[in-house]
Design brief:
Elements: E1 2-8, E2 22-24, E3 34-39, E4 42-43, E5 55-58, E6 70-76, E7 90-95, H1 102-105, H2 118-132
Parallel strand pairs: 1-3, 2-4, 3-5, 5-6, 6-7
Length: 133
């Protein structure tokens, strides 16, 4: 993906809870260089590997999310698998994983910090509002 906007959501007649089910597969947005992605459900493994410019909002992800990212932004609004951010050298990942073992899932080379920067807070707010819309 190098531009544009992609919205992925289940059919309106779907009877499952999309935020609890994988609705896109593995290695999605591998090497993405731009664009905006809004996923109304969970992603499989290796979401946004080598992402260098895309902005992605998803409601959960499997193992190895944001691996080798060099740029872009990813917001994960739910549970994630293990090894988040392995080899990540740039970009930002904002993760709201409400489980009690979140820190165990992050690659040991990743630095964790709270979202306290006003510019970052504004960016996250804008991305979440777009995802909601």
């Amino acid at each position: 993906m190098c531009g544009g906007t992609l919205v992925i959501k289940p059919d309106a007649a779907a009877t499952f809870e999309s935020q609890r089910n994988t609705i896109i597969g593995n290695t999605c947005f591998y090497g993405a260089t731009g664009g905006n992605v809004y996923i109304g459900g969970r992603a499989g493994e290796r979401l946004a590997v080598r992402n260098s410019g895309a902005k992605i909002v998803v409601e959960g992800a499997g193992d190895h999310c944001c691996e080798y990212m060099t740029g872009g932004r990813v917001i994960v609004l739910g549970k994630v698998g293990r090894n988040i951010g392995a080899g990540m050298t740039g970009g930002l990942a904002y993760v709201y994983d409400y489980t009690t073992n979140f820190e165990e899932k992050i690659n040991s080379n990743v630095r964790i910090q709270r979202l306290i920067n006003p510019e970052a807070q504004n960016e996250v707010k804008q991305m979440l509002e777009a995802h909601h819309a």
